[in-house]
Amino acid sequence: MNWDQIEGKWDQFVGKAKEKWGKLTDDDWKVAEGKRDQLVGKIQERYGYTKEQAEKELDDWTNNN
């Protein structure tokens, strides 16, 4: 799924993604609100990942779901 599709189906994406990134709060999801860089930052913050790790995990997950 490309990021334009994710932005268009944000609520559906969040529903699935909450299972993957359970440490993200509802407020985190609202802040990200379809913005990839914001979501990467929140994943980084909550999981202690580097930016590269967070981007790779997000890309891997979105490409497989």
From TrEMBL:
Gene3D superfamilies xrefs: YjbJ
Pfam families: CsbD
Origin species: Neisseria montereyensis
Transmembrane intervals: none
Listed name of the protein: CsbD family protein
InterPro entries per UniProt: CsbD, UPF0337_stress_rsp, YjbJ, YjbJ_sf
UniProt domain CsbD-like: residue ranges: 4-56
Similarity-based family: Belongs to the UPF0337 (CsbD) family.
Superkingdom of origin organism: Bacteria
